[in-house]
Amino acid sequence: MNNEIVKQELTENKSIVDIFKEIFPEDTDFDSEEFKEIVKNLESNVDLKKKVDNIGLFFEMIDSVIEAKKNRLQKIKSQIETLERRKEQFREFLLRLLDSYGIEEIKGNEFRIKVVQRGFRVEITDQEKLPEDFKKTTIVVKPDLEKIAKHVRETGEVPEGAVVIPSRFVTIK
Fold first, then answer.
1. pTM for this one?
2. Count of domains for the chain
């Protein structure tokens, strides 16, 4: 699409809200005053520069929503991790408590607490003392993408077995 077609698309009176509703998730706040003002300016007959500025403002608004949701998600993940650690710590406490009294099982009305043996785990204290039969050597061969990219940038040649995929995106500053 050439520059003139893009300018034409931006200067026409199209329904930006319908386009946004197709792109963004259902929980996007299309009723916020900030969003309504941006859409009003985008859909009015203002000049192209003003529309471009409003698109930039819209992206800034979306970026702030994304950042807020990321922060909230990080807090929730942290809370989940804390709860999981506490649950495991309490489970370990119960095991020590039951072991200290020699109790294998306690029954309640709906639940029971029982000490069970589920296999074991092996912990290595000194790898050098292990017999060779209990050691394995692993060789991992994988492409060095950074080296390939550097070679392509410097020579323009793409090594056989690789392809270069252009990375294109729109920036809004």
1. 0.49
2. 1
